[in-house]
Each structure stands twice: as C-alpha cells, then as structure tokens.
Design a protein that fits this description.
Rossmann fold, 46% helix, globular, NAD(P)-bd_dom_sf, NAD(P)-dependent_oxidoreduct
Length: 335
C-alpha cells in the first residue's frame, strides 16, 4: 500500500491520478472533504471515467501534526510520497511554516521508521539549493548558504530536508526531489495556476528574470520512477527549462488569447512595491501579497543543473511550451 500526503495539492493530485491509473493501491491523507473536489477536477482533465478512478483511493482524514491520526494512516504502508507542505513567503507565517513543513515532516519520517516503510519520496524545492560562487549555476552538491537572505519558505523546506536526511541515518531509504516552479492544471488561485489567472485577467508587468520550471506530470513521473528504483538517499533537481519571464508570460497570453504583459517591472519598481505592501500590512493588517523574496525571485537568473536526473533515469522533459499549451486549454474550460 502506498501513502500520499498532500494529495489535494497540485503535485499530490496528479500523483494520485497516475498511481490509480497504474492500478496501484493508494491511501491519501486529506484535511477537508471540500479539497477532494480539486482531485476530481484534475482527474477529469485526463479521463472521462474520472470518478471511478477517484473512488479507487482510500481517503484518511489526518493532520501532519496529529500523530494518532497519522498512525492510523500508516497502517500496512510500504511506500510514502510526502507532498504536503505549506507555501508562503510572508515572514509573519514563519511559525506556521515551521509547524507544517518541519514538524510535519519530522512526524512523517518518524512514522516511516517505526512502521518499517521501505522507501520515502519527499517533495522539496529548488529554494533549498544553495548558491554557486558566481550565483548562476547550481547542482545537487551546491551547499545551502545560511547567510543568504533566504525566504521563510526556503528555510523551513531546508529544515524538512534535514529531517529526511536524519531519517536515512536511522535506516530509512529515501529520495528527495527539488522541483522548480511546477506548471500544471487544476488549482488556479495560487502557485503557477495563479499566474495563468493573472495573465488572463490582464497582468501588465513582466521582469527581466528567468523562471526555472517543469511540467507537473514530469515531476510525478520522476517521483514514481525514483521510488521504484534502487536509487536511495539522493536528491534530484527537477527543472526542465529556464525561460525568460517575458517569453513565459507571452506564451501563456498567446494560448489564453489575451493581451500579453507589456510593462517591464524594473528592480527599483519591485523594491518600492514590496515596501508599500509591507507598510499596508502594518497599517491595516491586510495579508502580504508582494513579499520581498518572492518579488526578488522574479529577477533571478540562476541556472539549475538537471544533468543528474537525466543521467540516472535517462529522463526526457516535456517542453514547457507544450506544457503551457495544455494547461491553458484546461484553464479556458473553466474561465
């Protein structure tokens, strides 16, 4: 039996689809039944018989911080895909991020060990990869830099990775994947889906940075292949392409048949934007939307080396233009 955490997220829902399509016995953790509708929507993009596939999943209500609930979910489990995470770049969310991303992962690792799970696959992020000396080209061996102005999200995902590596020292076999920006259909109010939403609704700005991205289906394919392989206690960068933001946004606009962004957001404009957003938060309590690390990442031109995954698995990535075209098609179905 396979356990999937974060099954109602972008990666988790696509992973569940592939596992049940392959007729694998799957148990998935959920927090609210309402979020299961996301999974049904994702399944409907790929199969007319999506409800029958959805009903193959054994759902268990559990919170990553509730050990008794998790213990029930772990009964008779042999393999675990840990996709669950909180994503936020707002400094005010740091303690919530620590709870979910670090403490939650600690619980998953401990239960994997106590239940003699054969192998764990953990979904991390390129945010945990360090900087190279020239701040341009990094790989799996590049060390984390604690002195860098890291986002609270990156800090907690790195802390979660430490827990996975601690598990490997205690006998747990594990692999970690570090995806870039994951492009996929089904969730349109945050993550990459929100980018499609904003472009569709007239996003005017672009930056001169590059986006390191990958098709969600490639993330899932690599995860399954790695978990089922003899490879263990390794991490893998998952980035298909590095594309200029202007080109990336223009291609989304083209496939959504809307006007592309046409105003360059320069670095000084971005600096003013996050400061004004911070001030608005302090004066009115309005949740942060334009956080410094998130905005600075849109100016980033770091290159993430994907040689390792291609060499180990002979992996071929889906071209991002093909991915964008498919995601845009599904977006327009509900627009």
């Amino acid at each position: 039996m396979i356990l999937v955490t974060g099954g109602t997220g972008l990666v988790g829902s696509h992973l569940l689809y592939q596992l049940v399509a392959d007729d694998k016995p799957v148990r998935a953790i959920y927090r609210t039944e309402k979020k299961q509708e996301i999974v049904k929507r994702v399944f409907s993009y790929y199969s007319k018989d999506y409800l029958a596939l959805f009903n193959k999943i054994e759902w268990v209500e559990a919170n990553l911080l509730n050990i008794p609930q998790l213990s029930e979910a772990f009964k008779n489990i042999e393999h675990v895909y840990h996709c669950a995470a909180m994503v936020s770049f707002a400094p005010n969310d740091y303690h919530k991020l620590r709870k979910t991303n670090i403490e939650g992962t600690t619980n998953i690792v401990n239960l994997c060990i106590s239940h003699h799970v054969k192998k764990l696959c953990y979904v991390s992020s390129v945010a945990t990869i360090g900087d190279s000396e020239n701040n341009r080209h990094v790989n799996e061996e590049t060390h984390w830099n604690p002195e860098k102005d890291n986002s609270v999200y990156a800090i907690t995902k790195y802390g979660a990775e430490i827990e996975v590596w601690r598990g490997t020292q205690e006998g747990l076999d594990a692999v970690i994947v570090n995806p870039g920006v994951i492009i996929g259909a089904g969730i349109w109010n945050h993550g990459s889906g929100e980018i499609f939403n904003k472009v569709y609704n007239g996003l005017p700005f672009y930056t001169q940075g590059h986006i390191a991205c990958i098709d969600v289906k490639d993330v899932v394919k690599s995860m399954i292949t790695l978990l089922e392989s003899p490879i263990k206690n390794e991490r893998f960068i998952l980035v298909a392409e590095h594309m200029p933001y202007k080109k990336f946004l223009n291609y989304i606009a083209k496939n959504l048949e809307v006007k592309p962004p046409h105003i360059e957001a320069k670095s000084w404009m971005i600096s003013i934007a996050w400061r004004l957003d911070w001030l608005k938060n302090k004066l009115t309590g309005t949740p942060r939307k334009l956080v410094k690390p998130m905005l600075k990442s849109t100016l980033n031109k770091t290159v993430y080396d994907n040689t390792k995954i291609k060499a180990e698995l002979d992996f071929q990535f889906t071209p991002i233009e093909v991915c964008i075209k498919n995601v845009a098609k599904n977006f327009l179905k509900q627009a």
